[in-house]
Every structure is written in C-alpha cells, then in structure tokens.
Recover the amino acids of this structure.
C-alpha cells in the first residue's frame, strides 16, 4: 500500500520563510492567554500555587473531568464511525439527507441542550445528563471529518476484503475505520477538549467538573489566582491529550492513493440496514429533534416579547463577527496547516500543537485573559470589534488548522515535486498547486469556525462592543432570568443559521 | 495584599513582545471588521466637559446634589438583568440628561472583569446583583467614596462600611408554601429539619441567593453549626430545582409542600398571572437566619472619567424615583426610609433580619466547597 511509501517520502526540508514567519507569529500570539495565566498563577507565589494544586479536591476534579471526557469521547467515536461509514460508504436509504442532518447537532449550544433535557426530566442531573448532552453536541467533531475521510478512501481494500471472504458489513466498516485512525484521533481530541472546557452542560447538569469550579473561582470566589492555577492544570491535561493524539496520528498516515480516488461503489447493507437506520434516527432525535421540539414548545406556550427586528439585529451581530473571525482564522491557520501537512518537522508539528492550548481553556478564562491583554496592550480597540475577533481567532485556531491540515495531507507530495522540478518556487507550488486542491478544506474550516463563534458566549459577553447584541448574548439575557420562551426565537435562530455553515461543511463532499 | 497595579506593570513588559504579533492581526481585523458599533463606546472619548476626577471632596456639604453639573455619558457594568433595569436607565437619562452605555453580564464575571481591568476600567459604575461582588471590587480599592448625600439615604447596615458602595434594593429569603398542605408553616429554618418534611422541600442548589443564605448561615452560626444544619437538611432529601422561579411554580402546582426562595418571586407570578392563579404564599422568617436580607447595589469606580455622572447615577438609585422603580417593577424592598414596599409585603421594619456585615457574604467560594462536601451541590 501507499501508506509506507508516503511515510518515507515526507521530506524534512527547510521550512519556506513566507510560510514559517506568519505561522510562528500566529502560534505565539495564540498563546497570549497562557502567558497571562502563568503570570496570574504566580501572583501569590509558588507555594500558594502548589497549595492550590496539591489538594485531594484537585485530584477528584481531574478524575471526574477525565472520566467525563473519556466517556464522551468513546461514545462519540462509537456512534460516529457507523454513522459516517453508513452515510458515505453504504447504500443506506436517505444517506444524502442523513449526511447533513447528522452534522447539525453541532449547531446546538451545550447550555441550551442541557436545559432542554433537565427542564424535562430533572433526574438526569449529574454524570449521565452531562454525558448525554455533551455526546449529543460534540460527536460531530468526529463524525464530520470522518465523512470526509471515508469519501476519499480507496475502495480497493473493500474489494480485496470481499474477495477474501471478509466482506461482512461490520468487517468492512472496521477496515475502513482502521484506515482513518488519524482522522478519528484528531476528532477525538477536539471532543475531549470540548468536554474539558465546556461550562454550560456541566453547570446545568450539576456535574462537579473542572470548568464549574473555575467559573466558581471567578464568579463566586473573586479569586483569579485560583482560577488561573486550575486552568493551568487543565492546560497540562490538554497537552497530554494533544501529545497522545499526535502519537496516534503519527502511526496512521491518511494519504492513501495516487490522489485520483474513484467514487466508491456503495456497499449493500441488506439486513443490517435497519440497525444503521435506527442508530441515525436515535442520534438525530436525541441531539437535534428533542432540543428543537422543547424550544418550539416554550415559544408556542408562552410567546416572546421580542419581534423579528430584534432577532434580525442580533443575527446581524452574530453573522458579522463570526464570519470576519472565520475568514481571519483561516488566513492565520493556512501557513500552519500547510507547513504541518507539507513540510513535516519538529517545528511545524510544534506550531500545530501549540494552537490547541488556548482552545482547551474554558471560555471565561480566555475572556478574562483577553480583558487583561486588551486593557494593557490594545487599549484603543478594547471593547471594540477587532479585539473580540482576535479572541475568536485565538480560541478557534485549531479548528481551522485541523481542517486545512487534513485536506492538505491528502495531496500526494509527488505533485509538489513535479511542480518544483518544472521550476516553480515553493510559494508558487503553494499558490498554484496546493491552495486550489485544498479549497474544500478551507470552506469546511471557515464553516466550522463560523459556527463555533456564533455559539460562543463567555468571550462574547465580556469583549463585545458596548451596546451590540449577538444571538448568544440575547439568549443569555433571557435564560438568565429563566425566560425560556423569550430565549426561544434566538435559540432557534442560532440553530437555523448555524445549520447553514454546517450544511456547507458537510455538503462539499 | 498586593496592589493591583504591580502585576499589571510587570506583565505589561512581558506582553510587549506579543504585542507586535497581535498588532499585525489587529490591523487585518480593523480592515475587515464593520465598526459601526464603536460609536456607542464612551470609553474612547472621555467626557472632556467633565474635568473632575470623580472622587467627591470629602468636605462636600451633604446638601449638595450629586447631579448638579452632571453631564456626558457613563458606562455602567450591570449585573442586574436588562429586563429588570433597562427602563430605569432610560428614566435616569431622561431625568438627568446623563447618557448611559450599559454592559450587561453576570455580577461575578463583571466583578472579575473590573478586577482584571484595574485602574484602566472603562466602567464608571458597577451595579451588582449582590453584595459579595461589590465587596470584592471594594477590597481591591477600585471604588471611590460615594457622595454623603447619597450614603445618608440608606441605613448603614445595607451599605459598605467604608462608604464606597450602597444598597439600592433589598431581597428577603422566605419560605414559599402551599397553604392547603401546610396550614402552619415553619417559622424557622430549623423546623425544616423535621422528618415530616422529607422530600417536601424545594431548593435551588446552584442559585446565588441560596448560596448567599448558606453563607449567612456560616457567618452567623459558625462553620460547624452550619455544616450540621446543612447535613441534616440534606438528610431530609430536599428536591433540587434549577431556579427560584421553578421552585415557586412547583409549590404552586402542589409538587412540593414548600420551598426556599426570595420573597419577590411570588409577587412576580401574581402580577403576571393574577391573584386567582396563585395559591402559594410567603412565610417570612423574622429573627431567623433564614430571613436574610441581601441587597443589590452599586459603587462608583475610582478611575471613572465621568465621576460626576457616575455619582449622579448612584444617587438616582436611592432617590424616591429610583426606589419607587424597584417597588413597582421588581417587588424588592426599598431601602430608603419613608418609601413603602409593594402592597401585600410586610413592613421592612418587621423583617428583623439576622445581624451581619453584608461584605462577609463574599465568601461564597467556601460555601460552595461546604455544599459540595455535604452533597447538596451535586446530585
């Protein structure tokens, strides 16, 4: 197979400066919140820091957050593999519709899903409620890239397996999944980091996790030092996950063939079809239909004070900031994604990995650190749109890098060699060969960042320009006074309008 | 104690190196971003027509009106919700000519933002949902002293001991009960520990008001007694709800016999749905720690660039008009003598709340640890 030859052909050539310089700048800038955290964590001296960490409580929190992250990640992989495989590789009825529908739960904010469930069944509070909600809203981070990977997968292996009598549906699915180990690892990392940094679901479900305590340190303890110390522990856990993912990915190179993959012939599910249909239906109901149904019930039962105009102006706020943020994030991510995919070296891998640090932090921590930096370094744009957008960029950089990286890795390195031998400079290769080929990856990355920014709440609350509203802030305005009917239109608007970029991200293949 | 300015300066140097990189990105953003919103920001254009620095001269005559010569625009960090206070801000602007830019948010997070911003905060006023967040900003030395004429409006137990924040309205902890099932409601939280109430009491474990009550319990009775009460309470299998409003609705619908809430939730429901729709009633707890009176209040930032406007705003909160606003809009208790609470509420003088310094309610983090420890925070 081409797997081995590709591994050896990844060259460790010198990084071209036009890519390397912006990549280094971007990666370093994205670490600004970390610098703030270290600064504040040592505010009261190293002994205070150790005292905070070296507690039974800290270990309990690590265990509880770790357990939740592990369970949600495992469940996400367990449902995403059959879902992605059946909608991309099999003859599942309605698979084109399923493809998009199953990506849409990404549009549901975790705090909203959590409230939809707990207000319906209060006994869900605790681990299982948090597990249910977080799996429902974050599995698309595995599912989405996996659909893309399955679409590109060579069907030759399927045929070989079938010829050798190993063609049962489950075997074929497992076989495909094994070839996409790298994609699964990358998606799992995003899910795990999502769980570690999420506040909405664990707070609503009252699951005693790291983020809940970090928020408490700000909100109730007025103790930024304690919050920073705990956040640093979270960073360490995140770095271990990031390293683990790099190792899992390192052994599995996803480039498969000459690059010209024939559209695979769908595998017939026959009597297994009912299981795949049931799974798809169950996941869609739990993660999408249920919360939407609850919101519609709230609105129709109680009505909302706000008119279409209010929703439209909040929508405009959301769209404006998130699209600008997405465009800039992708621009910033391009050099990093291209370097790590096309010029793999210790440096380029490190650049790629470093973008995950800020992403792993709870929103409130990033928000407070951007307040700190904004007030001191960017006074003229503090509480102005540009700083908010910068914060989004720092927060969502790895989402864009990941999308660009995975699509850039699909281009055979031989293409670059051919172009170089015909006299193109490294940058000309990027411009004329790489960029056109990764256009779908860029579109997907843009969509992913757009929807993440539209859902984002804590950073938006603290950094938005005074007087401007987004869908997420309006949603907060109402949920904070328990007016769920009033929140309904904004919740629906988020889901509907986040569905657009999600559909783009999914439909491109 | 460290001065807030010190780490700031030290860190500034550290961030200079990052500044270059971030600035590059900022330029790009500025080109792409739609900047119409910047017109609403007052922080960029300090009110040049208000040359004073905000701190009123301590020799100020009590009779001086803080709103005299107040003008320009102030930025208010509002921990009180838009639904509750947006009209109040409009009224204030109409009455005084001072414009208000509002940033709404969670009181605790806004306090965290102000503590992080330090002396560079664009905020002129912090209007908080509870005393704890005000106490934190006060402790950091970021508030200035309020005008004497403002401070004298409210009894000292509902303001900061140093005069740098003031209570604007009072919220009383009560037991809301269903009279059909509870003919003689408890008069003390200790009666709630009776086994006859097992599984019959609603409470909101994550709600700030509940946690303030538990903090008051610690402050008034001491750590051990508080733990003892909370353990016994937990043993009585209380029913957890998401919010106060949900407890009130559950009691009204007969799901549980009684619940621990703030007093005004009942009156909100009566106002919204009519007296006929509401069977639940409030039991006030005079003389009991369960009858805690917490406040929502405000302070003026020492580095406000429109100190006069900010002082004027806080004085408006405790003016007759401001107090009447809370009476009719939120059913909270006015804190100014001579202003009557909403009809149906007992007189403020009869509440007889536990004696404690409201600033002590800022130790909520310790309360949360205790609640988690006795199993009342998580299921």
């Amino acid at each position: 197979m081409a797997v081995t030859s590709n591994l050896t052909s990844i060259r460790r050539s010198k990084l071209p400066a036009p890519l390397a310089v912006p990549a280094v700048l971007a990666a370093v800038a994205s670490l600004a919140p970390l610098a703030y955290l270290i600064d504040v964590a040592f505010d009261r001296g190293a002994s205070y820091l150790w005292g905070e960490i070296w507690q039974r409580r800290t270990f309990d929190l690590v265990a509880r957050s770790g357990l939740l992250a592990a369970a949600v990640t495992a469940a996400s992989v367990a449902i995403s593999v059959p879902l992605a495989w059946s909608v991309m590789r099999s003859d599942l009825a309605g698979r084109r519709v399923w493809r998009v529908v199953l990506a849409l739960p990404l549009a549901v904010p975790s705090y909203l899903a959590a409230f939809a469930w707990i207000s319906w069944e209060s006994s869900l509070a605790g681990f299982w409620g948090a597990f249910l909600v977080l799996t429902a809203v974050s599995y698309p981070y595995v599912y989405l890239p996996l659909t893309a990977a399955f679409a590109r997968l060579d069907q030759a292996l399927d045929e070989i397996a079938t010829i050798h009598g190993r063609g049962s549906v489950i075997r074929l699915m497992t076989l495909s999944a094994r070839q996409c180990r790298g994609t699964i690892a990358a998606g799992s990392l995003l899910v795990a980091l999502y769980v570690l940094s999420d506040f909405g679901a664990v707070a609503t479900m009252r699951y005693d996790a790291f983020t809940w305590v970090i928020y408490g340190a700000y909100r109730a303890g007025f103790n930024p030092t304690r919050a920073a110390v705990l956040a640093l522990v979270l960073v360490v856990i995140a770095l271990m996950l990031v390293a683990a993912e790099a190792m899992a990915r390192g052994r599995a190179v996803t480039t498969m063939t000459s690059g010209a993959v024939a559209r695979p012939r769908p595998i017939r599910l026959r009597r297994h079809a009912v299981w795949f249909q049931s799974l798809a239906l169950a996941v869609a109901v739990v993660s999408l239909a249920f919360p939407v149904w609850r919101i519609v019930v709230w609105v129709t039962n109680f009505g909302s004070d706000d008119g279409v105009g209010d929703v439209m102006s909040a929508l405009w706020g959301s769209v404006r900031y998130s699209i600008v943020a997405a465009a800039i994030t992708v621009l910033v991510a391009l050099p990093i994604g291209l370097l790590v995919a096309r010029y793999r070296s210790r440096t380029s891998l490190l650049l790629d990995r470093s973008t995950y640090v800020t992403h792993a932090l709870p929103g409130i921590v990033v928000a407070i650190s951007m307040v700190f930096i904004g007030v001191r370094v960017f006074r003229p744009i503090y509480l102005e749109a540009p700083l908010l957008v910068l914060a989004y960029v720092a927060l969502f950089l790895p989402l864009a890098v990941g999308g660009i990286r995975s699509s850039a890795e699909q281009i055979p390195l031989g293409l670059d060699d051919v172009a170089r031998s015909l006299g193109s400079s490294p940058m000309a290769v990027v411009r004329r060969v790489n960029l056109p080929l990764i256009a779908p990856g860029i579109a997907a990355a843009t969509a992913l960042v757009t929807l993440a920014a539209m859902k984002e709440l804590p950073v938006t609350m603290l950094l938005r320009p005074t007087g401007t509203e987004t869908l997420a802030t309006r949603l907060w305005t109402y949920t904070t006074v328990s007016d769920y009917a009033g929140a309904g239109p904004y919740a629906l608007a988020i889901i509907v309008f986040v569905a657009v970029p999600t559909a783009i991200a999914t439909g491109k293949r | 104690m460290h001065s807030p300015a010190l780490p700031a300066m030290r860190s500034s140097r550290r961030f200079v190196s990052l500044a270059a990189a971030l600035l590059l990105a900022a330029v790009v953003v500025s080109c792409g971003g739609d900047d119409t919103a910047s017109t609403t920001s007052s922080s960029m254009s300090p009110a040049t027509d208000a040359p004073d620095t905000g701190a009123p001269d301590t020799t100020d005559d009590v009779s001086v009106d803080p709103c005299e010569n107040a003008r320009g625009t102030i930025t208010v960090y509002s921990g009180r919700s838009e639904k509750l206070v947006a009209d109040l801000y409009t009224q204030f602007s109409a009455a005084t000519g001072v414009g208000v830019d509002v940033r709404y948010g969670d009181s605790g997070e806004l306090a965290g933002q102000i503590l992080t911003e330090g002396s560079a905060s664009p905020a002129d006023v912090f209007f908080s949902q509870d005393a704890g967040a005000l106490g934190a900003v006060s402790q950091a030395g970021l508030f200035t002293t309020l005008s004497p004429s403002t401070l004298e409006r409210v009894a000292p137990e509902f303001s900061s001991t140093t005069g740098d924040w003031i209570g604007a309205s009072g919220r009383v902890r009560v037991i809301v009960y269903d009279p059909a099932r509870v003919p003689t409601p408890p008069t003390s939280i200790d009666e709630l520990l009776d086994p006859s109430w097992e599984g019959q009491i609603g409470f909101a474990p994550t709600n700030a008001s509940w946690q303030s009550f538990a903090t008051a319990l610690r402050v008034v009775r001491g750590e051990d007694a508080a733990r003892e009460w909370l353990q016994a309470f937990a043993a009585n299998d209380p029913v957890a709800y998401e919010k106060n409003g949900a407890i009130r609705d559950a009691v009204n619908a007969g799901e549980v016999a009684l619940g621990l809430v703030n007093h005004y939730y009942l009156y909100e429901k009566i106002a919204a749905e009519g007296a006929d729709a509401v069977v639940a009633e409030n039991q006030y707890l005079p003389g009991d720690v369960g009858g805690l009176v917490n406040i929502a209040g405000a302070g003026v930032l020492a580095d406000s660039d429109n100190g006069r406007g900010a002082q004027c705003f806080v004085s408006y909160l405790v003016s007759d008009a401001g107090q009447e606003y809370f009476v009719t809009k939120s059913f909270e208790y006015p804190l100014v003598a001579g202003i009557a609470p909403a009809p149906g509420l007992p007189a403020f003088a009869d509440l007889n709340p536990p004696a404690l310094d409201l600033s002590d309610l800022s130790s909520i983090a310790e309360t949360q640890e205790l609640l988690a420890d006795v199993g009342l925070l998580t299921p």
Notes: Residues 12-506 of chain A form a domain with the MetI-like fold fold (CATH 1.10.3720.10). Chain A has 27 helices and no strands. Confidence is low (pLDDT under 50) at residues 1-12 of chain A. Chain A has one domain: 12-506.
